[in-house]
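Researcher: Quick sanity check before group meeting.
Model: Go ahead. Protein one:
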Amino acid sequence: MSQKEPISVNRRARHDYEILETYDAGLVLTGTEIKSVRARKVSLREAYAAIEGGEAWLYNMHIGPYEPGSRENVDPKRRRKLLLHRHEIDRLLGRTVERGLTVVPLRLYLQRGYAKVELGLGRGKRQYDKRRAIAQREAKREEERALSERQRGR
C-alpha cells in the first residue's frame, strides 16, 4: 500500500462544495474501527466536521462493524475526534463562523499505519454552478474525444 492511498473518497463533496483550503487531520479510533478501516468498510457520504468546545469532531462517518470484534464494536456512526493543531482549529472555527463556510471530509487514508482524514473548507455551490461545472466537463470530454479521433484518422 502506498503512503497516501485513499481508503474512502467523498466524491459528492467536490460536486456540492467549492473547496477553498484543505487540512489533514488525524482520527481517534478504537481497535475494531481501525481494523474495519483497513478492510475498507468506510463511507464518508454523509459525514461532516464541526468545532465544539475547542475540539474538532467528525460526525456521520460510517465505519462498518468488524465481524470478529463482536462486543468490542461501537456505534458505526458515532462522533469521532479529529486531531488538529490548535491554530488550525482556531482558523477553521473563525472561517466557518465569520464567512459561513463548511468543513467537509474529502477522503480517508492511511499514513504510516494511522488513519487520517483530508478536510476541505468549502462554500456550498448553487444549482447553476453545478450545472456549469457539468457542462464544462462534458465540453472538455467532447473536445478530447474529437482530438483522439482526429489523431487516429491520420
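Researcher: Fine. The other one?
Model: Protein two, sequence then structure:
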Amino acid sequence: MVNEFFDDEGSTHLFQLVHMIQRSAMMHMGMLPDSEGRAHYNLGETKAAIDTLSMLKTKMTGNLNPKENTMLNGIISELQLQFVKAPARQRALEDQVAESEAVRETFTNPQEGPVEIITDEEE
C-alpha cells in the first residue's frame, strides 16, 4: 500500500524512517513526552538525530524528487531551529518545576514555608 502523499512505496518507507528520527529528536528536546508523559532534554541525542538526517540528505542527493527534497530540508531546518531554542525551554521547565515544588512544600510544611510579613508601618 503506497501512501497517497508519496509517489512510491520506497518514498513512504524513507519518510517513515525520517519521521522516527524526527520524533526522537523532538522528544530529546522536550517537545514530545515519552511514553510515561515525562519531558526529556538530551541535546547530544538531538544533535545526533539532526546529523543523521543531514547525512541521509547528503547521501541521497540526486535521488530525491523535488517534493521529497523540500520535505527533508524543511524537517532538518525546523529541528535545527528548535535545537537552538531547546535550552530556553529546558530552563523554563526547570523553573516551573522548582516553583511548583516550592508551592507544594509550603502547603506540606506551612511552618517552614516562605514568610512575608506585611505591616502598616512606614519605614
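Researcher: One line on it for the slide.
Model: The chain has a mean pLDDT of 86.
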